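Input chain follows. Return structure tokens only.
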Amino acid sequence: MKRFQFILASLVTITLLATILCAQTGVRQQLRAPGLPYFSSKIFSTFSEDGNQRLTRVYIQIVNDNLTFLQVDSGYRAEVQIEVMVSSKDSDFGVSRTLTESFLMKDYESTNAKSIVNTLITEIPIEAGEYEALITLRDMNSSGQTSARKKFGVLSSEGAVASDAKLMISDILFFNQFEKDEQGRIVDFDPALENSFSSDGESIYAVFNSYTSTPGQPLTIDYVVRDEYDLVVLQNQLEIASPEQYATHYIRLNRYYFNKNRYYMQVALNSGGTKISNGALFQFFWEFLPNSQKDLNLAIKQLKYIAKNDSINFFLKQPFAEKKAFFKRFWESRDPNPSTEENELMKEYYRRVGYSNQQFSISGESGWFTDRGRIFIKFGQPDDVEHHPFEAGSYPYVIWRYYDNRKSFLFIDRTGFGNYELHPEYYYVEYE
């Protein structure tokens, strides 16, 4: 059994390493082998500046490393086409948007950069209700395409339509990459669509929009941040004596206050006794050595997919200094590029853990410990995701396909509460 665990852990490490090495190499004729253009997306509910129309803003992000660039006279060019289709299961509402965008890089190195994030945005007028968005991105140079489905709701405020509302608040976005003008005001930013950040850095920012039908009346903004145990770690109140009818608010969150993994931020507006609130989760993943005993214990437990269980159980019982030395030794021995300060394998592993916590967590269980989280951490982003939420005579289910690994996984939600478990007939696929 121990030998089997060692072989499995080695295979998972090789899969992770292959992901990183593929990102660092390219095909000279076409710069990257044709593949699937993985992207991130987020549905952001907001409203027009006059308050008369609710809006769904769709953010799509893709890094250069996931695009196919072709050499042209002025450098290297990639081109994508994005189609966004929004529909409602409760009405005949349906709308689509098509975006076409090209990206020009002057040098070869930039075409493989994961740090260069391309953000595309489209807005769709919408009313309160439950919706589904199908987002399809096609790489025009490789003809590869990927799709993502997202369910979302648009909540009403006081009235059935936006124009009836006295006070509105948008969804909350988080970011740490931004530009300022000469007065020090934020003028542009790249949202972190997965609400996930590395453990370094001094601060992150939250941003949201507000609308008030009585702009001359003072506006109070209360915000509170709680950790995963519902303990308050940060709270504050802002008073705006004469607010604008429509405004964008930025709140700086000092990294000093956050030494755990997951947090929930709630923002409440109050104007003349009218109150409204919204909230969002955000989290951190480890890029360097965790500093606290609790964080280090969790980081070691999360090694279970690439480390021996005996080692994990042994070092969890050891003093902090020995745990720290084990954790450091474990990742140093697997660093694909020791000449750099960053350990790319460790960063990718805990990025997958963070993504799993964000996307696959269910009541009472963190996402990294679920079946979908385990498969995602081991094999990465699936090449194709097939959703079946409303099949007659069947539980909701989803199929993940990995073309390069020749693997498919079937997850079934037998509870109806989003707890997708791996179908027993697919257990063996994970270990082939």
